[in-house]
Amino acid sequence: MDSEELLAFLAAVGHAQRIRIIGELASGQLYVSELARRLGVSRPLLYMHLERMEKAGLVVGRLELSDDGKALKYFELAPFDVRLNVDTISAAVRQVRPDPSDGTGDDEPHSAKGTP
Amino acid sequence: MDSEELLAFLAAVGHAQRIRIIGELASGQLYVSELARRLGVSRPLLYMHLERMEKAGLVVGRLELSDDGKALKYFELAPFDVRLNVDTISAAVRQVRPDPSDGTGDDEPHSAKGTP
DNA sequence: TTCATGTGTAAGCGGAGACTGACAGGTGAA
DNA sequence: TTCACCTGTCAGTCTCCGCTTACACATGAA
């Protein structure tokens, strides 16, 4: 994980509303309107947060049809596990983001999070 | 670690300049002006960042006198090690911040970071 | 005295991000 | 047709944060 990835991840997690979203989704997937109701948050605002979180790989969204034909946008948590200490952070800072056409990733090619 | 602490910590780490500061301090303590020079950052700006980081427990500052009597404000990294995954985050969200006069911390009374 | 080096703080600007309100469109049920 | 749901997006406001510029003050060396 290079410094840009790390920052995107931290920005996605480091917000009061967004960790509440994580707390709510921890017990299972939910669709947007229901999630908005539970958190007492406007739906457009929730969209913004979920978008940001999806870009950072924290959640994944999926459009689904309910029994009665309604389209529901479900979101669930993506598995992630990031450790923050002096070593991991300074390692990320040192990552110089190599040229796209360059195979010499010095430590972790593209991703350190998730439990595959 | 409750959700407020977690957010303060994440806000302190989740910033491009601040992880650069961590990267620089990883090799040892530095005083403010020297650090500002190395990072190419104005000193007042650096002060703001260091203040924020100190409040979050990321760094500690200490005023010292150099050989020639100059007062130097040295900063060094505080040891920290935080793990971020669904469990740790939702645990923090569930922390209801008990009354100050209450001894029943359900998991970790006041701090989960550092290695005392 | 002047210069170079430090620490510390205050005022102000600008832009990004958080948030609201309103819109268009779709569905099934009454 | 109307209602009650849902998804999606846009325009606008507002606040906070990052950042710069500028001060006041102290020290040792020239």
Description:
Chains A, B: This is Transcriptional regulator. Chains A, B: One of its GO terms (molecular function) is DNA binding. Chains A, B: Keywords: DNA-binding, Transcription, Transcription regulation. Chains A, B: It comes from Streptomyces alfalfae. Chains A, B: Pfam families: HTH_5. By secondary structure, the first copy, chain A, is an alpha+beta fold. Chain A has a single domain, classed as Orthogonal Bundle (Arc Repressor Mutant, subunit A), CATH 1.10.10.10. Helix content of chain A is 44%, strand content 18%. Chain A is built from five helices and four strands, in the order H-H-E-H-H-E-E-E-H. Chain A is elongated, with a radius of gyration of 17 Å. Chains A and B meet through helix 1, helix 2, strand 4 and helix 5 of A and helix 1, helix 2, strand 4 and helix 5 of B. The structure holds a DNA duplex (30 and 30 nucleotides).
Please name the defining characteristics of this protein.
homodimer; alpha+beta; Arc Repressor Mutant, subunit A; three-stranded antiparallel beta sheet; 4 strands; 44% helix; disordered C terminus; WH-like_DNA-bd_sf (chains A, B); transcription regulation (chains A, B)
Helix content of chain A: 40-55%
Strand adjacency order, main sheet of chain A: 1-3-2
> Structural class, from helix and strand content of chain A?
alpha+beta
CATH secondary-structure class of chain A = Mainly Alpha
Oligomer: homodimer
* β-strand amount of chain A: 15-25%
- Flag low-confidence runs of chain A: 105-116
Domains counted in the coordinates of chain A: how many?
1
